[in-house]
């Protein structure tokens, strides 16, 4: 894709509502992934549901984005 076409596409994508941008971003990222393994997909889906259950039950310890970023930078030595 030429630079001009990419610039136009990017501009149009950034003009989309947030939910549409998120859906597009997800589709683009997953298109870069290797073929999916059904067992891995199933395991992740179960893990996601388990974590959502903890959030709904108020048993999960949540942190905000700034704290998450701080912890990741600490782990990476940044």
In short:
With 78 residues, the chain is mostly helical. It has helices at 3-14, 18-32, 38-56, 65-76. The protein has four helices and no strands.
Supply the key terms.
78 residues, mainly alpha, 74% helix, extended, 2 domains
Distance between the termini: 35 Å
Structural class: mainly alpha
Number of domains: 2
Question: For the report, how would you describe the main beta sheet?
Answer: none
Q: Give start-end ranges of low-pLDDT stretches.
A: none
Helix share bin = over 70%
The total of beta strands comes to 0
The protein's oligomeric status is single chain
The ordered H/E elements are: HHHH
Rg over CA atoms, rounded to whole Å, is 18 Å
Label the overall shape: extended
Task: Summarize model confidence as the mean pLDDT.
Answer: 92
Helix count equals 4
Beta fraction:
under 5%
